[in-house]
Amino acid sequence: MATKQAQQDPKELHPQPSFPEQKQKFPGKESEMRPYADHGEESYVGSGKLEGMKSIITGGDSGIGRAVALAFAREGADVLISYYNEDDDAAETARLVEEAGRKAIRLGGDIGSEEHCQRIVQQAVDEFGTIDILVNNAAFQMPHEKLEDFTSEQFEHTFRTNLFAMFYLVKAAVPHMKEGSSIINTASIQAFNPSPNLLDYASTKSAIVGFTKALAKMLMEQGIRVNAVAPGPVWTPLIPMSFEEEKTSSFGENTVFSRPAQPAELAPIYVLLASPQASYITGEVYGATGGKTPL
Length: 295
What we know:
By secondary structure, the chain is α/β, with parallel strands linked by helices.
């Protein structure tokens, strides 16, 4: 059940947290994060913007994906949660969706495989009958300080997870999407202000921007809108999983807010882009970078 959000100062809603040094193993877990991330459990209130819609969210087990799944459910949408192997996190996201009175489907596996992406779409169609919203959100990153530390295997894995999977899923899903449907891709500030230690990750995010804009033009005749969200630093399991301990304690301090975003602060953008209120919005990249850079 959604909790009514009181009128509060933004600094009280999302105070600057204290981040202890921490490190997680791949792929990272919500339950091990300190402090816990805010996905809108106590704050997000729906108003029927997505009533009756059917959605797929990759990386829906945690972070931005969990916040989007929760918001979609409270707005009236059923959700297929695609994830890698974080079963406990996915189960918690499903619980939040079902608590909101909507249907939750969980499907684990590697989206770098085209066959698995096809299974995701087929299961959504089997369970829901149609697909109204596809959120391509899952991503992998692993920073290195030197070029020689980036292996060819990692470079290919990053592209398969972050970019190829979008192509696989879109190709499988579009035949089941009708006019008014929406595709939302998660890009990043790294597409516009890349960090050298995220060479492969930043490259995929730049490619996602081009993919989004080209696909928006391609699918316009079918009435399917395609947009992207480009976050700055967000407190998700990807951070303690990929960075060394000392980096987590200062994560997000270089924004004008002097903190990273919480996933709950990103979810309303995805809701807007998925909803009929965004009927004239396509081929756009919505930035939520904490004031770091214009997109």
